[in-house]
Design goal:
The protein is of the alpha/beta class. 56% of the residues lie in helices and 13% in strands.
Length: 361
């Protein structure tokens, strides 16, 4: 007898459904969301040797469950959340029991229909956590800057920003508060706690940034990717930890789709519409790739074929479209260099001279 199992994972309990090869329900129930408890519940009702596949949706606890249940010997598959959610919406009522039933039916279909999610290695997962926390602090830093300057504007107190560093920003705010005291606007006591918090946050952010830089320098793949213009320690480490294994892509062009940098297509009969980029996949790495593309187009003074290609798109379609297109090319280039174990090769002097004739818009 062949058995297929669906796991609907929540923070405390996991709904479990066991079906046979014909799709008939054998057993349903719940267990604590602990790998040993889930395994014990399953083995209590079916023989481990008869289990063909166990499936669960990708989520926050996927890495832990996938790793531990694999160690226990279960043939577990982590499914793409978007695909699983679309299938489960066909059910009339959404409950944990019904979701577990639906997941069990999906894994029973098997084959190429299931889009498995590759679970990262522990080292990459740890580095990914560092990048995520750092990204969160960056967002908090920007939010504090906006809050402090925005709170002063109603009193006619405009704080210069530009591209000021954390130290310069604090000096600008203190200068603004001096002007406020001179005009009799009593806001210093309300702004200073946020400004002190901003200073502490910047110190912690610097520590995390240095940690990211040290990890990138210690990784030979990141060092190779950093030879590409516009790619630094943060972008390279973000890309490496997101991809994990470049050989899992059948074609290099699939990397752009993996990060949501390819347009959506809607085709039905004679209608065939190409929309904006899908924006599916890892949001943080996609943002980093777009930032690297922007640096390449606007700040990198040395010319290369990738920049020339991007400048042509910029002059025709604008910076917004150009940086997304370059980000997609950049993802393909990084994956190619990783697979070939080669550094980025700049164009020859003759080609550079020709590319120099193309001036930025």
């Amino acid at each position: 007898m062949e058995y297929y199992i669906g796991l609907d994972v929540s923070q405390r309990q996991t709904a479990i459904c066991i079906i046979n090869g014909k799709g008939e329900r054998i057993k349903e129930g719940k267990a604590l969301t602990v790998p040993s408890d889930i395994y014990a519940w399953i083995i209590k009702h079916v023989d481990a040797g008869d289990i063909v596949r166990v499936g669960h949706e990708a989520g926050a606890m996927s890495f832990w469950l996938q790793t531990e249940l694999t160690k226990l010997g279960l043939p577990i598959v982590c499914m793409e959340a978007f695909q699983a959610a679309a299938m489960l919406e066909t059910q009339r009522n959404k409950t944990d029991k019904n979701d577990a039933r639906g997941l069990a039916q999906i894994v029973r279909m098997g084959g190429k229909f299931i889009r498995p999610v590759i679970v990262r290695s522990q080292n990459n997962q740890e580095a990914r956590m560092l990048l995520t926390i750092r990204q969160h602090l960056v967002e908090q830093k920007v939010a504090l800057e906006n809050n402090i300057t925005g709170s002063l504007k109603p009193f006619g107190l405009v704080t210069p920003r530009g591209h000021a560093c954390a130290k310069k920003f604090r000096e600008n705010v203190l200068a603004t508060l001096v002007r406020a005291d001179e005009r009799g606007v009593m806001v210093r006591e309300m702004v200073m706690p946020s400004l002190d918090l901003y200073e502490d946050l910047c110190k912690q952010l610097d520590l995390l940034t240095k940690r990211v830089e040290s990890l990138a320098k210690a990784n030979p793949v990141c060092q190779r990717l950093m030879t590409v213009p516009g790619v630094g320690p943060i972008v390279s480490l973000s890309f490496v930890t997101a991809v994990d294994n470049p050989k899992r892509f059948r074609h290099l062009c699939d990397v752009g789709a993996y990060f949501g940098l390819t347009p959506k297509q809607e085709q039905s009969g004679e209608i065939n519409k190409m929309g904006s980029v899908s924006r599916r996949g890892d949001t943080m790495t996609r943002t980093h790739l777009v930032q690297a593309a922007t640096v390449l187009l606007t700040s990198c003074k040395k010319w290369c074929s990738l920049k020339a290609w991007g400048i042509k798109i910029l002059k025709k379609h604008g910076l917004r479209n150009a940086r997304v297109a370059v980000a997609r090319k950049l993802a393909i280039l990084l994956c190619s260099l990783w697979l070939q174990e080669k550094d980025f090769c700049w164009t020859t002097a003759a080609v550079n001279q020709k590319l120099a004739e193309v001036k930025p818009a």
